[in-house]
Design a protein that fits this description.
about 350 residues; Heat Shock Protein 90; 2 domains; five-stranded mixed β-sheet; 12 helices; 7 strands
Length: about 350
């Protein structure tokens, strides 16, 4: 039967073996019902007939209510499959060793009588431990997925705010004729001081809402302009070198998440350095051979702890920014590399912009 399931139905060997053992275990309930029928009617024929009827009834219920769930558990992981096969395997060996090849069970040998209860107890507690561990992993995975989704939603919201600022700048430029009219009126009055004050105010307003131009890509310009202002407020110098085209085959929200998470962490680390002379963040972005390349460097004080290639945050519910970066890079057939050495933290991102061949 195992060979048939493996060779002809192309099922994995382990799953085929556990399935056959489970089917053997499922025969025990009909066998018990058959024994009851034989006892009631005091006939071995009644035992066999009751057993056969019970087999069909048991098959119906097991196939309808148990089979799919059992298959999902077996396919979930190798540990689950082995654990599910342990009980029917031991019972199979116990049944044949103590009742077919010997009569140890009928002799009441203590070791034989206590064997299966002991096996069931051990497997039960092992199952609890493994099941709890699996549930913890699933809870952590769901929590991390929700946090990454929140990161993307935050990036989308931030990008919308930046675009609103860009629209305000465009509207401000559109209203320049009104400013010229006011300045002309002040000039006619000869109010030079009023003109100077008005010009300073207008220039300040325009500087706050007008993004700096680093490259041809407007989304990147918006993001870099915002973090340039944040770096200035944090007392951090920010050097930017961006050579990106106007159109990049990458979702704007993901692009915003990559740059925002990287620059936010870099500015925070650089701003926390005790030596003001070291507070400089370097950001570079370009496209080379169909790949988007992003480099962000910043100084840091203290020790950076890595786990699984990702820097870990000592603060609770932090550190999801780097995980978000790594997840986005992996989703686009790329990678994100983080390194901390000699007081300089480096983040390198490579994302493939070429479409997959279908």
């Amino acid at each position: 039967m195992i060979i048939f399931l493996t060779k002809f139905l192309k099922r994995p060997l382990l799953i085929s073996t556990v399935s056959v053992l489970s089917a053997y275990l499922c025969c025990q309930v009909p066998r018990w019902i058959g024994s009851i029928g034989g006892t009631i009617f005091r006939s071995s024929l009644a035992d066999h007939i009751t057993y056969i009827i019970a087999v069909f009834v048991a098959f119906y219920f097991f196939h309808k209510y148990v089979a799919n769930t059992l298959l999902q558990l077996m396919e979930k992981s190798t540990k689950s499959c082995v654990l599910l096969g342990a009980v029917p395997l031991f019972y199979y060996l116990f049944d044949y060793i103590t009742t077919i090849y010997t009569d140890l069970l009928y002799q009441g040998v203590s070791g034989a009588v206590q064997f299966m209860p002991s096996v069931f107890s051990i497997v039960y507690f092992v199952f609890i431990i493994i099941y709890y561990a699996e549930m913890q992993k699933q809870a952590f995975a769901h929590r991390e997925r929700d946090m990454l989704a929140a990161q993307l939603r935050g990036a989308h919201s931030e990008l919308a705010t930046l675009r609103q600022m860009q629209n305000m700048a465009a509207a401000y430029r559109h209203d320049m004729r009104h400013h010229f009219a006011i300045l002309h009126s002040m000039a006619s009055e000869g109010s030079i001081e009023k003109i100077k004050t008005y010009l300073n105010t207008a220039r300040s307003d325009i500087d706050e809402i007008t993004p700096l131009r680093f490259c041809e890509n407007e989304t990147v310009n918006l993001i870099l302009s915002t973090f340039m202002a944040k770096a200035k407020n944090a007392g951090v110098n920010m050097n930017v070198e961006a050579k990106l085209p106007g159109l990049i085959p990458l979702n704007d929200t993901e692009l915003c998440s990559l740059l925002s998470n990287g620059l936010e962490n870099a500015i925070f680390a650089a701003g926390s350095c005790l030596d003001p002379e070291r507070r400089t963040v370097t950001a570079k972005a370009t496209i080379h051979k169909g790949n988007l390349l992003i480099l962000i460097e910043n100084p840091y004080d203290g020790v950076v702890v890595f786990e699984g290639g990702l820097p870990q945050s000592s603060q609770k519910d932090h550190g999801f920014g780097t995980r978000s970066i790594a997840a986005i890079a992996e989703a686009h057939r790329g990678q994100a590399i983080f390194n901390a050495e000699d007081g300089v933290f480096t983040m390198k991102i490579m994302i493939s912009l070429r479409k997959l061949d279908v």
